[in-house]
Fold each of these.
Amino acid sequence: MAIKEKPIWTFRTSATQQTATKSTARSRDVTMIIDEPIERGGTNEGPMPVEMVMAGLAGCTHVISNKLARANEVTIKDMDIEIVTTMDSRGTRLIEPIDVPFPKIIINITTTMTGHPAGIEEVVSKLKEHCAVSKMLRQSGSQVIENWIVNGAEWAAAA
């Protein structure tokens, strides 16, 4: 059964404090634990809030790449995503407010795709235009760099 998606919709996430560093969040019927590492006073039972943002970026990259692939008659057989984030933690450490907490984010995407090279080019070049998390980060001032390895070779998107 196909789901008819609305162009604008509302979703909810709720969270409850468990300790000074640990929260339990819920979206739909999914529960997530958000926590700090032991060295920061947490219990290390879940990702830190900033790691959750980057996990969201990875998930968005995966989902939108596959939507673009289907729209361009390309098949993504596998995809591995590694995100390397530079964070300016002066704001979260209460040293001083900052404007751009993540000055540089590198997304390394390794994938196997089949289809016409023009279709693959559409996937690679259009991802940044459609991934909501990537757009949010870019518009907040973060430099988001996508490095693609497609079928074992570096793929540079057309300018």
Amino acid sequence: MKRLFTICFILFMFNQQVIARDFEGGYAVYSAGGESCKAYLDSMKSGQKQDYFIDWTIGYLTAFNVIMPDTYNILGESGFIESQGWLQRHCNRYPKQLYINAVIKLTEVLYPLRYQSGLKKPAPGLKDVSKAVK
């Protein structure tokens, strides 16, 4: 019974993303989020428009921290540099994917490992948080 409850809870948490969309499942995407992963990778390699993607990502993660319940810091023990490495690896695998979808996937990976309060403790039962983004 406990296992069933846990599975239902996890499905509910990741289903919250769908609730925030319109009746057709869509949502507006602004700025760098609407670019492709390939554009992100190109900007990281060339150094041009790097701030465009980095600033957008910082804003997204900050908004995530504000909006999501029991979330102080989605990065947990991971650093921003580690999250950028994860995004680059993910975008190498899926270059046609929208950048926002890559960042959403990153937050899905990090969510169970987040800091839930300013006391800077990871979610209960998690030991090596940094492995999630390496």
Amino acid sequence: MSEQPEVAGRFQQSLPAAALLALGLWVGYTSFNTEDPQPYLFPQLISVALVLLSGMALFRAFKGTNRTGAGVPLDQLGRIAPAIGLMLVCVFVMLPELGFYSGSALGFFILFSLYDPASHKSPAVWLKRLVITAGFMTLIYVVFALGLQVQTPRGLFI
């Protein structure tokens, strides 16, 4: 006897697609509703892609043609909840107050420290986390500021 994998219901599949569609519409509204659209090219492209893809996912969920898994178990949701909370704090508090690069560096460092299985008592491990965070933020700066020439939010720090 073979076991059939559980498949999430239409409602359970529709919720994330609807949330992403709302996010894409919000990003699209804010990025297209500006006086100077040139600095908002990257968010405009992302919002269009997000609206199209999440709209397709929502349509498939309503039709019942998605064959996704049964969803996220509660124990796994408990493990990722701190990361989701940190991302929300980063987007709505740290980025506007500290600036994009400082807020992102702090958020990345905290997230990395939360999920890094290495000891939290070793100074060498903390140094490794700082070096990786600095390297990651350098890459982000090169991609966004130099490559895509995106204007990032300014705050207390850069």
